[in-house]
Amino acid sequence: MTLASTFSGAHDFFSSGTWFVIRNLLLFFVVIFWLATAYWVYKDARRRIEDPWLVAMSVVLGLIPPFFGALVYMLFRPPEYLEDVRERELEIKAMEERLARRDLHCPVCRAEVGVDFLVCPVCTTKLKQACVNCKAPLEALWQICPYCETPVEPAAIEFPTFEARPPRRRRRSE
Fold first, then answer.
1. Does 163 score more than 60 pLDDT?
2. Which residues, at least 6 apart from 78, have a Cβ–Cβ distance to it below 8 Å?
3. How many domains does the chain have?
4. Could you tell me which residues are beta bridge partners of residue 138?
5. Same domain membership, residue 73 and residue 27
6. CB within 10 Å: which end of the chain, N or C, has fewer?
7. 153 within some domain
8. CA angle at residue 86 from 84 to 87, to 5 degrees?
9. Is 55 among the domain residues?
10. For 151, which DSSP code?
């Protein structure tokens, strides 16, 4: 077998109808994949970017340099979906509202108590000290009664102290 016959066989294959079908199918699939990446850039940009102008620029970037544009978009796209950002903002707002509401609970029985309660109505735990002059409830850090201007003696405030008990160990039943 000679070199000329080898090249003639290759020449015959590349000039045959089979090669044209294979080449056209490969080109078809490359174009389909290129358009699919551009569509993916469009869908992803719509989920991450609010401004329609920036979404359009992202799609152009995904289309014009084939395949390379999608990689560049992936490097510079926003890290979060808009839906996740909105959800996080709603969670933060809900947590701020819960903290602003400041539901008070008894430290012993977890019953709901009011801001002005001196003792828990359920378990009778002392929650606040009363002013010696006007009997108004005092906060723990106050040094003077804001209602009657009577100085608060630090020794007069006695709040419940809770001992930290070691956790009880379960016994294994054998």
1. no
2. 48, 49
3. 2
4. 129
5. yes
6. C
7. yes
8. 65
9. yes
10. B
How far apart are alpha carbons 113 and 154 in whole angstroms? 24
Same domain, 76 and 16: yes
Structural domain span for residue 58: 12-80
Residue 16 sits in the same domain as residue 74: yes
Q: Please write down the long-range contacts of 159-166, taking CB distance under 8 Å and 24 or more positions apart.
A: 159/126, 159/127, 159/128, 159/129, 160/107, 160/108, 160/125, 160/126, 162/107, 162/108
- Tell whether the model's pLDDT for residue 40 goes beyond 90: yes
SS3 130: strand
Q: What is the DSSP letter of 166?
A: P
Q: What is the pLDDT of residue 8?
A: 77
Place of tokens 């340099």: 65
Structure tokens that stand for 137 in this block: 């409830």
- In a 10 Å sphere around its CB, with 0-12 CB exposed, 13-18 middle and 19+ buried, how is residue 70 labelled? buried
In a domain, 152, yes or no: yes
Looking at the structure, tell me whether residues 76 and 18 fall in a common domain.
yes
Asked whether the CA dihedral 24, 29, 34, 36 is positive or negative, the reply is: positive
Average pLDDT value over all residues in the chain: 83
Residue 157 has pLDDT above 50, yes or no: no
